[in-house]
């Protein structure tokens, strides 16, 4: 295992419930919004959301552009999912939010034939190249400009290789993508995973949405995707 540790995580389909109470961190909220949006044909209520930062607003806006219906009600957010319609094209604005960019970049081709992701000057200077290269190897096509990235194509791979020490958000984005795929897929970390706590947050949210994990050893994630059938019966997540 060239320079990396091994980590096996098995993700299996299971019924989903859909009310998340007490959102303790911005990192968790990003992931909960995205999972709520990609849960097929259901509505999720996120409760006890005390503050909506600019980064969270960027994620909410991007999910709306992809087709989710979102309503903020006091300290709660209601999110009606994207459903089965794949758009012909979409334009997303990530602003300064690196989390929004890295978590959504692997997913957007699932919901739009072509997507253009606009970024601020500062965000385009942050690391993203390795994630793009990994996704290109999986079948996606990227056209990079100074402040935007255009994505097209379809994921046709069940194996993803990525480093663990540049950004844990690379790993989290690939985990979210893998949970959508119909087949079993694997994520292989070529270097030791840093910022493990943030990957744990991703795993927690996926578990909250009914996906079962078995972590066997370090360095490799094995994910059993379930496509549309995974995201059903959304109620009473606590």
How does this model look, in words?
It holds the Pfam family EPSP_synthase. InterPro entries: Enolpyruvate_Tfrase_dom, Enolpyruvate_Tfrase_sf, RNA3'P_cycl/enolpyr_Trfase_a/b. This protein has 238 residues and is of the alpha/beta class. It has one domain: UDP-n-acetylglucosamine1-carboxyvinyl-transferase, Chain, CATH 3.65.10. 32% of the residues lie in helices and 29% in strands. The protein contains 8 helices and 13 strands. A 5-stranded mixed beta sheet has the order 10-11-13-1-12. Strand 10, helix 7 and strand 11 form a beta-alpha-beta unit. Helix 1 runs parallel beside helix 2 and helix 1 runs parallel beside helix 8. The longest helix has 13 residues. The radius of gyration is 16 Å and the shape is globular. The N terminus and C terminus are likely disordered.
Integer average pLDDT: 82
| Largest sheet composition | 5 strands, mixed
CATH architecture: Alpha-beta prism
Show unreliable segments.
1-17, 227-238
**End-to-end Cα distance:** 38 Å
Radius of gyration (CA) equals 16 Å
Number of domains: 1
Helix content: 25-40%
Helix/strand class: alpha/beta
Number of helices: 8
Quaternary state of the chains: single chain
Name the strands of the widest sheet in spatial order. Answer: 10-11-13-1-12
CATH topology: UDP-n-acetylglucosamine1-carboxyvinyl-transferase, Chain
In CATH's first tier, which class applies? Alpha Beta
Broad shape: globular
Work out the number of β strands: 13
Estimated share of beta-strand residues: 25-35%
Order of helices and strands: EEHEHEEEHHEHHEEEHEHEE
**CATH-assigned homologous superfamily:** Enolpyruvate transferase domain
């Amino acid at each position: 295992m060239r320079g990396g540790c091994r980590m096996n995580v098995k993700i299996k389909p299971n019924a989903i419930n859909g009310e998340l109470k007490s959102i303790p961190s911005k990192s968790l909220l990003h992931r909960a919004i995205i999972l709520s949006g990609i849960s097929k044909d259901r509505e999720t209520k996120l409760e006890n959301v005390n503050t909506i930062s600019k980064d969270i607003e960027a994620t909410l806006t991007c999910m709306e552009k992809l087709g989710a219906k979102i309503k903020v009600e006091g300290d709660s957010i209601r999110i009606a999912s994207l459903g089965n319609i794949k758009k012909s094209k979409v334009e997303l604005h990530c602003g300064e939010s690196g989390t929004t960019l890295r978590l959504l970049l692997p997913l957007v081709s699932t919901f739009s034939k072509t997507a253009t992701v606009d970024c601020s000057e500062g965000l385009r200077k942050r690391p993203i190249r390795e994630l793009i290269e990994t996704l290109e190897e999986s079948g996606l096509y990227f056209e990079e400009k100074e402040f935007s990235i255009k994505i097209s194509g379809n994921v046709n791979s069940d194996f993803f290789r990525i480093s663990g020490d540049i950004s844990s958000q690379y790993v989290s984005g690939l985990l979210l993508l893998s949970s959508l795929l119909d087949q079993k897929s694997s994520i292989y970390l070529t270097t030791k995973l840093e910022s493990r706590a943030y990957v744990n947050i991703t795993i927690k949210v996926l578990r909250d949405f009914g996906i079962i994990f078995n972590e066997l050893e370090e360095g490799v994630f094995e994910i059993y995707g379930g496509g549309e059938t995974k995201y059903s019966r959304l109620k009473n997540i606590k």
